[in-house]
Specification:
With 543 residues, the chain is an alpha/beta fold. The protein folds into 3 domains: 177 residues, Alpha-D-Glucose-1,6-Bisphosphate, Chain A, domain 3; 223 residues, Alpha-D-Glucose-1,6-Bisphosphate, subunit A, domain 3 (Alpha-D-Glucose-1,6-Bisphosphate, Chain A, domain 3); 134 residues, TATA-Binding Protein (2-Layer Sandwich), CATH 3.30.310. The chain has 18 helices and 27 strands. The protein has a 7-stranded mixed beta sheet with strand order 2-6-5-3-4-9-8, with helices on both faces. It has a 7-stranded antiparallel beta sheet with strand order 20-21-24-25-26-19-27. Strands 11-10-12-13-14 form a 5-stranded mixed beta sheet, sandwiched between helices. The longest helix has 18 residues. The structure holds alpha-D-glucose-1-phosphate-6-vanadate and cobalt (II) ion. Cobalt (II) ion binds next to loops. The site of cobalt (II) ion (CO) has 8 residues, from loops.
Length: 543
């Protein structure tokens, strides 16, 4: 068995987006495409001798092939030891957990997360650093620069590794340790939450449905919720990771998880519903007849954090992505802790957590997490809610209504215009940016504009600057309209329109969200000329 040096030429478009490199499976299947990107990762890591790297994915189509390729390339680059999830499976938060627990140098996550899978679907790859979190932009940019200057890659020609048996083998001198994908993660969860209280809750007949959406979180949810916590079999639905996710679109929101929402709105609804995404880092929380918005979920977890043993000493600070609603800011203020506003994407939270400045982080896109790992963590959020329900004896609906009564309600919605012509989307953003300087002071409908800008973030830890992170129109009463282009799509462009309005009066806390936001929607559409420019009469998805 020898190390082969294979000639290659660069591919265009290998710049990572919001969360790694995501492309159609067919693009990844081109000879050399995956290999080039992986070569660029290993070259930017420098000397790999003596180092441990973690590897796993969400089980989607092409996962197993990619794992073999990466293992063989890792051996060629002198990596000492690879920790691989059995069957090639590791959720994104589990990769983060394993990197941290085993002191690995970094990890490679194979997933296109919430994007559909299967031969005609999407595939993705992402590098995580030593702290367990997504590589910051300076590293992803260095990887991209390498992809553009490659003339060869190195790979071992050893036979494939058996990924299905737990244990250690060697591959051209490199140790390959196939690990139980759930074990380390489950152990960590057991230290954060009051498993006895949750077990007792299920013992009292509490009913729950967890929708794994045919993606990676099924095995984790089954092992922890049904196994350790004693929920009855069948609590986890769509719990097998399938290469095409069983046809599900594993993006947990009320539109894609329609089956779960129907159940939770039905006559015999369970007490609690939840769903996770392709790679297990997102979560949707549902009560009887109520889907909790991710922004509210972050705020409610923050306000009740001390109910969970792992957070009993209190939280240090909160961070949220800029388009996420400001519900968490109100909690931070009440707790007397800082609340940071970062650009979209989990990689921006890493420094704040490493510096001990924040404990909880969240994004409006169904992402919540804490400093227990450096990724957002779907099942963690679900367990946090179970812990809050068990410790408070309240229902989801009660926790939400009481939170609104205390802090006020931030009505919030995101309108996505998917697969729009890329040039039209760029033109829409450019026109909006051009209007920004004139917006402040203008009266738009019932609102007056306080500020129009394109969000710029300066990291308080390393002072790196991220600009052009979203066009904001902020009204004098704090209501907001935000526009940005998605960095995870693989077809055309996706325009995201985020809308937020604060309502202090409890008598007005039970309006329909879209109605409550309708005048902001009208302003957003007219300022952006979205319909004319994109040719779309309505958003493709409203969450
Ligand atoms: C989307 C979300 C963002 C999230 C990212 C990765 O990015 O808006 O909040 O961090 O997906 O999530 P974008 O650029 O398409 O808006 V995951 O679960 O797909 O890794
Ligand atoms: Co995800």
């Amino acid at each position: 068995m020898t190390i082969q040096t294979v000639a290659t030429t660069p591919f265009a478009g290998q710049r990572p987006g919001t969360s790694g490199l995501r492309k159609k499976v067919t693009e990844f299947q081109q000879p050399g495409y995956l290999e080039n990107f992986v070569e660029a990762i290993f070259l930017s890591l420098g000397d790999c001798n003596g180092r441990t790297v973690v590897l796993g994915g969400d089980g989607r189509y092409f996962n197993r092939d990619a794992i073999q390729t990466i293992l063989h390339m890792a051996a060629a680059h002198g990596v000492a030891r690879m920790l691989v999830g059995q069957g090639g499976i590791l959720s994104t938060p589990a990769v983060s957990c394993v990197i941290r627990k085993h002191g690995a140098f970094g990890g490679i996550v194979l997933s296109a997360s919430h994007n559909p899978g299967g031969p005609d679907g999407d595939f993705g790859i992402k590098y995580n650093i030593e702290n367990g979190g997504p590589a910051p932009e300076k590293i992803t940019e260095a990887i991209f620069a390498r992809t553009q200057a490659l003339s060869s890659y190195r790979i071992s020609d050893a036979p494939p590794v058996n990924l299905d048996e737990i244990g250690t083998t060697t591959l051209d001198g490199m140790q390959v340790e196939v690990i139980d994908p759930v074990l380390d993660y489950a152990e960590l969860m057991g230290r954060l939450f009051d498993f006895d209280a949750i077990r007792a809750l299920f013992g009292r007949g509490f009913r729950m449905k967890f929708d794994g959406m045919g993606a990676v979180s099924g095995p984790y949810a089954k092992a922890i919720i049904e196994g350790v916590l004693g929920a009855p079999g069948g609590t986890v639905i769509n719990g097998e990771p399938l290469e095409d996710f069983g046809g599900h679109h594993p993006d947990p929101n009320p539109v894609n998880a329609a089956e779960l929402i129907a159940l939770m709105n039905g006559p015999d609804a369970p007490d609690f519903g939840a769903a996770s995404d392709g790679d297990g880092d997102r979560n949707m929380i549902v009560g009887r007849g109520i889907a909790v918005t991710p922004s509210d979920s972050l705020a409610i977890i923050a306000a009740n954090a001390t109910l969970a043993p792992g957070y009993a000493a209190g939280i240090k600070g909160i961070a949220r992505s800029m388009p996420t609603s400001m519900a968490a800011d109100r909690v931070a203020e009440a707790l007397g802790i800082a609340c940071y506003e970062t650009p979209t994407g989990w990689k921006y939270f890493g420094n704040l957590m490493d510096a001990g400045m924040v404990t909880l982080c969240g994004e409006e896109s169904y992402g919540t997490g804490s400093s227990h790992v450096r990724e957002k963590d779907g099942l963690w959020a679900v367990l946090f809610w179970l812990n809050m329900l068990a410790a408070s004896g309240k229902s989801v609906e009660q926790l939400v209504s009481e939170h609104w009564a205390r802090f006020g309600r931030n009505y919030y919605s995101r309108h996505d215009y998917e697969a729009v012509d890329a040039l039209a989307a760029d033109a829409t953003m450019t026109a909006l940016r051009d209007k920004l300087p004139t917006l402040a002071g203008q009266t738009l409908g019932e609102y007056r504009v306080a500020l129009g800008d394109d969000f710029v973030y300066t990291d308080p830890v390393d002072h790196s600057v991220a600009s052009r992170q979203g066009v904001r129109i902020i009204m004098t009463d704090g209501s907001r309209i935000v526009f940005r282009l998605s960095g995870t799509g693989t077809e055309g462009a996706t325009v995201r329109l985020y809308l937020e309005r604060y309502e202090a009066d409890p008598a007005r806390h039970h309006l329909d969200t879209q109605e409550a936001l309708s005048s902001l929607v009208a302003i957003a559409e007219s300022v952006s000329e979205l319909r004319q420019r994109t040719g779309r009469q309505q958003p493709s998805v409203v969450t």
